[in-house]
């Protein structure tokens, strides 16, 4: 049940084109055992394509996906739990029946599949829905069934495409605790999301992709470390242009008397402080810790600048 220590899902130099569109360009990253990995990127950046290739429902043009050091094939795919972004359930089948069927399809004996389906429906708050057709459930409940479908065969790896989208706050809590539990049991867990506050709070590491490439990967603190230093200054008497004479300093945000400035490597923060004090009182002068949303915007806007 528990993934072996040291088990890693390796995404290695995947390339994928759809005609003239380059969807993936040497996409490379690892998701380690026990890790919650947030996979983020703009619309069309290549998240779904990567996850579909990792699950084996889409062929790659080149590159490889490995689990525990071996290329993922028909057999090892059974150790992966996959939740697609589009609903992949049989609408007319009843919830429990469907989960049992999917468990058996992945090699479970009927009795074990039934037991697991009962356990997951209870855990995910679906015990009153077991005999309902999937199409009669609300979208959020259909998503819970979709999660149960990814988990029913007790996979060693989880790949989830936008599992949190459209969930109410209670369902977000349930989803979060289930994913945490699977990671704590040793599974690599990768999920895509556009909810960056949630990703920041929840993930051990984050990968930001842009135009089919991994452009920033690490803990949020590591990503902050790669970004230029930002300083927040509250100087009520300062007028626009007050920092123009400080080499390597740029105003990136300005709201009332509060300015956020980005400093290039080697720029002198003391020179900036002197410039701020020259305008009058300074109520705040502190390093600004960018949120993931801000780091994401910086990385994505470099695309435009290039
Ligand atoms: N079947 C397809 N045929 C042609 N182009 C496709 C196909 N599937 C995806 N693409 C293109 O490949 C690129 C990557 O798409 P993908 O769905 O992987 O992005 P995504 O990061 O998951 O986006 P989103 O956040 O919008 O879900 C996009 O340019 C998309 O238009």
UniProtKB/TrEMBL annotation:
InterPro entries: AAA+_ATPase, ABC_transporter-like_ATP-bd, ABC_transporter-like_CS, DrrA1/2-like_C, P-loop_NTPase. The keyword Nucleotide-binding applies. Residues 9-236 form the ABC transporter domain. SUPFAM superfamilies: P-loop containing nucleoside triphosphate hydrolases. Belongs to the ABC transporter superfamily. The keyword Aminoacyl-tRNA synthetase does not apply. This is ABC-type uncharacterized transport system, ATPase component. Keywords: ATP-binding, Nucleotide-binding, Transport.
């Amino acid at each position: 049940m528990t993934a072996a220590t040291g088990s890693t899902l390796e995404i290695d130099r995947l390339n994928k084109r759809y005609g003239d569109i380059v969807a993936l360009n040497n996409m490379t990253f690892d998701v380690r055992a026990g890790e919650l990995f947030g996979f983020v990127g703009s619309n069309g950046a290549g998240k779904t394509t990567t996850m579909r290739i990792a699950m084996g429902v889409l062929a790659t043009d080149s590159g490889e996906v490995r689990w525990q050091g071996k290329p993922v094939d028909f057999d090892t795919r059974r150790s992966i739990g996959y939740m697609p972004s589009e609903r992949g359930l049989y609408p007319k089948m009843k919830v429990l029946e469907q989960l049992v069927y999917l468990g058996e399809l992945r090699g479970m004996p009927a009795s074990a599949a039934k037991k697991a389906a009962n356990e997951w429906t209870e855990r995910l708050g679906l015990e009153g829905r077991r005999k309902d057709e999937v199409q009669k459930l609300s979208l959020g409940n259909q998503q819970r069934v979709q999660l149960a479908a990814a988990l029913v065969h007790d996979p060693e790896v989880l790949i989830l495409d936008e599992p949190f989208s459209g969930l109410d706050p209670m369902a977000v809590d349930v989803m979060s605790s289930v994913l945490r539990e699977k990671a704590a049991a040793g599974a690599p867990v990768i999920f895509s999301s556009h909810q960056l506050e949630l990703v920041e709070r929840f993930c051990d590491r984050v990968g930001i992709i842009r135009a089919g490439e991994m452009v920033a990967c690490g803990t949020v603190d590591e990503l902050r470390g790669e970004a230029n230093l930002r300083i927040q200054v509250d100087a009520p008497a300062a007028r626009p242009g007050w920092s123009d004479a400080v080499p390597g300093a740029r105003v990136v945000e300005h709201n009332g008397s509060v300015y956020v400035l980005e400093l290039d490597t080697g720029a002198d923060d003391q020179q900036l402080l002197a410039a701020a004090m020259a305008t009058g009182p300074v109520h705040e002068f502190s390093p600004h810790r960018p949120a993931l949303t801000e780091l994401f915007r910086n990385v994505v806007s470099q695309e435009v600048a290039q």
